[in-house]
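User: Assemble these into one structure.

Assistant: Restating your components, then the assembled model:
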Amino acid sequence: MSSLTLTLIKGAIALNFALVVAAALVYLERRISAWIQYRIGPNRVGPFGLLQPLADVLKLYTKEDIVPYNANKAFHRLAPIISIAVALAVLCVITPASYILLEDGTKLFIAVAPNVNVGFLLILALTSIGVYGITLAGWSSNNKYSLLGGLRSSAQMISYELAMGLAAVAVLMLSESLDMYQIIASQANGRWNIFFQPIGFLIFLVASFAETNRAPFDLPEAEPELVGGYHTEYSGMKFGLFYLAEYANMFTASAVMTTLYLGGYDVPFLPSLLGLQEGTLARVLFELAIFFGKVSVLLFLFIWVRWTLPRFRYDQLMNLGWRVLLPLGLANIIITGAIVFFVR
Amino acid sequence: MNVTTNTRAQRMSFWEKLYLPEIAKGLALTFKTMFKPKLTRQYPEERWEPLGSYRGRPVLVLEEEGERCVACGLCSRVCPALAIEVQAGETEREKERYPVKFEINMLRCIYCGLCEEVCPEEAIVMSKDYDIVFHSQEEAIFGKDKLLVPIARLQERLEFLRQYK
């Protein structure tokens, strides 16, 4: 099998997996929010209501697609595609497990694009493009609320990207590589970055909430003041794409955090205790389970926080981003740098 | 000057300003809530049984020898939404009059209960039915076939009326 077909197959699996996860997250979000509010949540469609997301998508597909008369049609159509494409493209460098050692001695890497030496940089670059999706959606709708939502979103994402990047720099100092595989390898045997970089993890976590436009940072769509924010003028599956993109973004953000701070697929002692050799299929399945276990904990955190905290006010948001997280991130870099320089 | 200054106790402490412990408290609260009993009623399976004082769909009382109604038309006259139509006819029975036609347009009915209040015979009363659905406007006009309800099923309401009316 040529490496191109292999990559295409892996990419198709990753895409479908991410979309299924996004759909499942919509279900979980509704279920968990219901539990937090003494309710039961959707439980009618299929067993435990598990087919609810399917019904939702079917409904969205059959809905009328309304485009405002004065909207910029091309950009109005392009915006949701950018949003979802960027959210899914990040998956290519995520490394959910190491590799399978084939009979002829070559390594079959599980990541779609393995050993990208600028892996993390690619993620930062791609997530930055995500701003365009939302800003274009707000601008092309020709609606003041959409525009305000888009503006807020671009300001918010640019502010928090900075803090996010700074927090990640400290991690990269420790791992001495941008390759996702190397970053995980540097945290092997329980030397997870969260223990060395608790403040960095916190900054990255908060910034991830802001980057994915999740509560308490969901100002771009703040429904009491902006109707629906950037997606006010979207209907049918175009709205559905924004909706899916939000959850796909959550998934990728959780995967990135797992890679950077929670040791990726690493768990100390257990593989050797279970006798799982590196490079075997069993080991890879075990690693996948560990990786997605950690990711689902973070995903639960995303949903849990949304139904606990109220939304930030706009000035508080900017205050937190520029006056708290940014200096903290800088201090974190300097301290980490000093320790790395003097200790190693 | 009407200026109030924050006392020391009102000001946020260092830990409160840090937000994080407070956020953790909030998260703990919502996490505990997730396992508490739910308040939802699973509607079509679990139905709510209203008390006698509930004003549901107006119905006509059906006794063993027939309906109580004497077709005086007071309900139709008092109805603020003009939902009731009555046509009187003669009968061999002691009460002499009976409704040939008795129709309530359920799209107009506002469940005010004035028909029940004005009825001299206690023949029209509010029932406990609260889920009233129809597929067309014609279907929403309830005739005698749907309105007549055996008296045994209305005992609670009649008792309530005797006590409080």
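The longest strand of chain B covers residues 97-105.
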